[in-house]
Amino acid sequence: MGSSILHVHSSQHTYPIIIEPGCRKRTFAFIDQYITRKPTKYLIITDDNVAPLYLEDVVHSFPSSETVETYVVPSGEQSKSFKQYEETVTAALKYRLDRRSLIIALGGGVVGDLAGFVAASYMRGIPFIQIPTTLLAHDSSVGGKVGINHSLGKNMVGAFHQPSLVLYDPEALLSLPEREWRSGFAEVIKHGFIADKDLLEWLVTHVTSFQEWDMDILSEMLYRSIQVKANIVQEDEKEQGVRAFLNFGHTLGHAIEAEAGYGAITHGEAVAIGIVYALRLSEKCFEVNLQSAPYLEKLKSLGYQLDIPKQLSADGLLERMSVDKKAYNQVIRFVLLKAIGKPVVQGMSGTVLLDELKREVK
């Protein structure tokens, strides 16, 4: 199939998101087409899982006249650390990147967050592009939120720095293990819950397994999910309003990730549990029946465990949620649903949350 193109309008610039099988092999051609100021040199930042699979494809897309450097970081959430951030900036300095150089983030969400934060802060900001290689990164690569983790919380140090271009190659997803599919698909179904009930219905019908994909179905899923994210980001670039809705399922999800130890449970697996918790809170707070059973059954059929891990304590999770970025004045703010497609941000008392957590953690 051919290209699908979305455009995201931000205060910095408008940038294209190109969804096209094989586009990683034409990276330079797309840069040449869409980036008006020619970069002086390029630094591709990737990880040790992605490098053997796709780094050569991207490097070989450049003519020999271009200066292309590469830097490979360890795979996994541990690379979103102060230590790895400093080492990556050091590499950029050693390669003598200047303000007209371009950083290329080739990888999943961790690489995109790290490379984007390096780009945001290096010499007070240089351009970068995203080449996501995971389903999870279809979400994180759009919207300009970049950063690293702190021992007290996920994504606590970062910036808003919009990419100049996003190249999404569905072919790169076909090498993903099933757990990585689950990690990313939770964000897809989240987008349906907050903004597009038709997308939820489409997912129930068309996504039957993570083992075999029709490329047209995969590309359409990416397009529809990214469209939700792009629409929200354009309306609220700096998360002062509706962009907070994208955190549906994430308040508890982030707490589960942190409490379990980063990497013990994937982001999407934690978010899926957080979505179930947020749905139950929504029904309790607003006295509604969201009729979410078919969608949760779909998650279960795809291998999700939707219960809070037994080894985690309710008190520990509540403490983690209290330092969530959305919290203020000691009130934990949850994204809840009055109906599917109608999210609201609701202040919740710790007592109510703890009672619900204790019911969930058995």
Automatic annotation (TrEMBL):
What does the cofactor field's note say? Binds 1 divalent metal cation per subunit. Can use either Co(2+) or Zn(2+).
| Cofactor(s) the protein needs | Co(2+); Zn(2+); NAD(+)
Q: In which pathway does it act?
A: Metabolic intermediate biosynthesis; chorismate biosynthesis; chorismate from D-erythrose 4-phosphate and phosphoenolpyruvate: step 2/7
Q: Which UniProt keywords apply?
A: Amino-acid biosynthesis, Aromatic amino acid biosynthesis, Cobalt, Cytoplasm, Lyase, Membrane, Metal-binding, NAD, Nucleotide-binding, Transmembrane, Transmembrane helix, Zinc
Residue ranges of the 3-dehydroquinate synthase C-terminal domain? 184-327
- 3-dehydroquinate synthase N-terminal domain span: 71-182
Q: Which reaction does it catalyse?
A: 7-phospho-2-dehydro-3-deoxy-D-arabino-heptonate = 3-dehydroquinate + phosphate
- Give me the segments passing through the membrane: 102-123
UniProt GO molecular function: 3-dehydroquinate synthase activity; metal ion binding; nucleotide binding
Cellular component (GO) terms are: cytoplasm
Per UniProt, the enzyme's principal EC class comes to: lyase
Question: What Gene3D superfamilies does this protein map onto?
Answer: 3.40.50.1970, Dehydroquinate synthase-like - alpha domain
- Domain of life of the native organism: Bacteria
- What EC number(s) would the UniProt record show? 4.2.3.4
Q: Which residues bind NAD(+)?
A: 75-80, 109-113, 133-134, 145, 154
Amino acids binding Zn(2+)? 187, 250, 267
Single biological process term from Gene Ontology: aromatic amino acid family biosynthetic process
Name the PANTHER family on file. 3-DEHYDROQUINATE SYNTHASE, 3-DEHYDROQUINATE SYNTHASE, CHLOROPLASTIC
Q: What does this protein do?
A: Catalyzes the conversion of 3-deoxy-D-arabino-heptulosonate 7-phosphate (DAHP) to dehydroquinate (DHQ).
Its protein name is 3-dehydroquinate synthase
